[in-house]
């Protein structure tokens, strides 16, 4: 990763739909050179995809929550498979500490939350934290110092 690639990544992280021509103007290289560098970063899995950030509240969800779970003995592997099937889960991380997982979930309402927790408790002990607001917007990945 050279400085030019980091500049390209900065542009893409700010706006993944920015054209290669615009990125080239901003970083000082041609559009084909930008395209080639992006392709190499995709092939190296530095760039792992492109996304649209959708507001769950604007599409009808009333609750966003973080749910931590400590898996019961023998339920870790079954949960690893099951969690991938839940539409409510938008992110799930395996973590260190007393819990095994933290899930970011979106839910229609409190009844939906209750029903979802009921599905989880066969796999382990849960703790639910309802998100009130976002303090830090997803930030860009920056070069190591």
Distance between the termini: 13 Å
Shape: elongated
Rg (CA only): 20 Å
- Could you give the order of the helices and strands? HHHEHEEHE
CATH superfamily of the largest domain: Lrp/AsnC effector binding domain/regulation of amino acid metabolism (RAM) domain
Q: CATH architecture of the largest domain, please?
A: 2-Layer Sandwich
The biggest beta sheet reads: 4 strands, antiparallel
Total count of strands:
4
Instruction: Just give the CATH class of the largest domain.
Output: Alpha Beta
What structural class do you assign from the helix and strand content? alpha+beta
Number of helices: 5
Strand order within the widest beta sheet: 2-3-1-4
Mean pLDDT over the residues: 95
Unreliable spans are none
Helicity range: 25-40%
Task: Walk me through this protein's architecture.
- The protein contains 5 helices and 4 strands.
- The protein has 145 residues and is an alpha+beta fold.
- The protein folds into 2 domains: 3-43, Winged helix-like DNA-binding domain superfamily/Winged helix DNA-binding domain (Arc Repressor Mutant, subunit A), CATH 1.10.10; 63-130, Alpha-Beta Plaits.
- A hairpin with a 6-residue loop joins strand 2 (89-94) and strand 3 (101-107).
- Helix 1 (3-14) packs across helix 2 (20-27).
Core attributes:
single chain, Arc Repressor Mutant, subunit A, 20% strand, 145 residues, 4 strands, alpha+beta, four-stranded antiparallel beta sheet
């Amino acid at each position: 990763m050279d400085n030019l690639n980091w500049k390209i990544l900065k542009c893409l992280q700010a706006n993944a739909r920015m054209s290669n021509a615009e990125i080239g103007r901003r970083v000082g290289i041609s559009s084909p050179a930008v395209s080639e560098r992006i392709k190499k970063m995709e092939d190296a899995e530095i760039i792992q995809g492109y996304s649209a950030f959708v507001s769950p509240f604007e599409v009808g969800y009333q609750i966003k929550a973080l749910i931590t779970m400590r898996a019961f003995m023998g339920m870790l592997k079954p949960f690893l498979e099951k969690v991938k099937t839940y539409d409510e889960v938008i992110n799930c991380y395996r973590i260190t500490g007393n819990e095994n997982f933290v899930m970011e979930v979106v839910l229609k309402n409190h009844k939906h939350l209750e029903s979802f927790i009921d599905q989880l408790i066969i796999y382990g002990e849960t703790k639910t934290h309802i998100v009130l607001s976002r303090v830090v917007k997803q930030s860009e990945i920056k070069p190591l110092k």
